[in-house]
Amino acid sequence: MKSRAEYSITNRIYWNEVASVHQDNYVNELLQRISDPDFTTFDPIEQKLFKKISLSGKAVAQICCNNARELISVKKAGAGRCVGFDISDEFIKQGEKLKQAAEVEIELVCTDIYELGDAYDNQFDLLYITIGVLGWLQDLETFFAILVRLLKPDGQILIYESHPVLELFEEDSGGTIRNDYFNKKPYFEEKVSDYFNPEAVIKSPSYWFHHRLADIFRSLITHDFNITHFDEYAHDISNRAAFLSEQENRPPMCFSLIAKNT
Predict the structure, then answer these.
(1) Residues 214-226: tens digit of each pLDDT
(2) 209 Cβ partners below 8 Å, 6+ apart?
(3) Label partner for 246 (CA 20 to 30 A): which of 13, 119, 151, 211?
(4) Beta-ladder partners of 84
(5) Burial of 56 by CB count in 10 Å (0-12 exposed, 13-18 middle, 19+ buried)?
C-alpha cells in the first residue's frame, strides 16, 4: 500500500497530462463563450439546489475545482468570494485563463487538499464538490475533517457527484456487474482513454478509490454534519456511463447531498 502522498503525486502527474488533452478538446472553445453573462455549467438539478441554498453574497470554495468552470458559474450566479482548490498545476493555469476570459474575480490555489494549511480555516459559507472528486480521495475521514475546518459555523456542503454504484459496471459490460461494491483496494489504471476524448490515450498512471454511500454518510456523521438533503438520479453526469443511460432499467448514476456544519 502506498502512502497518501505517493497516491497524490501520481495523480497530479496524471491530471497534468489530462489538462493538455482537454485544452484542445473543449477549453479553447470554452474560452470564446465563457464571457457571456448568462454562461453556466449548472444543470436543472444544480439550479434547484443552489436556489435552495441561495448563493447571493456567500463565500464559496470549490474542492478539486479542475479548471474552475463550475466555480466561474457559481460566481456569475451571485456568490461573493470564490476560491478553488486543485492539485493540478496545469488545470489551475487553465482556470486562470478562463477567469480572465469570464471577467470574474475568483482565487485559484494549486494544492493537494490534504496538505492545505490553516490559512483558509473558518472562511466559507459553502463548499461545493462535484463530478468525480470523491473517487480521487484515498482518505474520506481526513478529507471531511478538513472541510469542517474550512467552514464557518452553520456553513454547508453541497455534493453533486457520480453514484458509487457506477463502479460496478465497465463500459463493455452492458448491465453485467463486473466490480465489487465493497472493494476497498485502490484501482490502478494506465494508458486509458480520456473521458472527454476517447481517441486520446492518457499514458500516465492513476489511482482511483471506491467509496460506498455508507462511507460518505459515516464520514459526515462522524464530523457532526447535519444532512438536510439527499437524492439519487438516473442520469449520468460523469461522461462515463452513456451505455447505462440508454438502458430501459437504469441504476442510480448520480446523487446530490447537502449537509450543514453544526
Answers:
(1) 999 999 999 999 9
(2) 135, 136, 137, 138, 186, 187
(3) 211
(4) 62, 108
(5) exposed
What is the DSSP track for 218-245? HHHHHTTEEEEEEEEESS--SSS-HHHH
Contact between residue 55 and residue 77 where contact means Cβ atoms under 8 Å apart: yes
How many angstroms separate the CA atoms of 248 and 177, rounded? 16
Within 10 angstroms of residue 164's Cβ, the number of other Cβ atoms is: 19
Domains and CATH numbers, the chain: 4-261 (3.40.50.150)
**Position with higher pLDDT, 220 vs 173:** 220
C-beta of residue 154 within 8 angstroms of C-beta of residue 88: no
Which grid coordinates are listed for 62? Answer: 470549490
- How deeply is 249 buried, as exposed, middle or buried, from its count of CB atoms within 10 A (0-12, 13-18, 19+)? exposed
Neighbours of 51 (CB within 10 A): 11
Decide the pairing of beta strands 254-261 and 151-162.
antiparallel
Q: Which amino acid is at 80?
A: G
Q: DSSP strand E in 141-213: where?
A: 151-162, 187-189, 192-193, 201-202, 206-208
23-39 as b/e, with b when 16 or more CB fall inside 10 Å?
bebebeebbeebeeeeb
- How many other β-carbons are positioned within 10 Å of the β-carbon of residue 170? 13
Half-sphere exposure of residue 139: CA atoms within 13 angstroms, side-chain side: 16
Q: What is the pLDDT of residues 86-97, one digit of tens each?
A: 999 999 999 999
CA distances to 84, 92, 164 from 214, rounded to whole Å, are 27, 32, 10
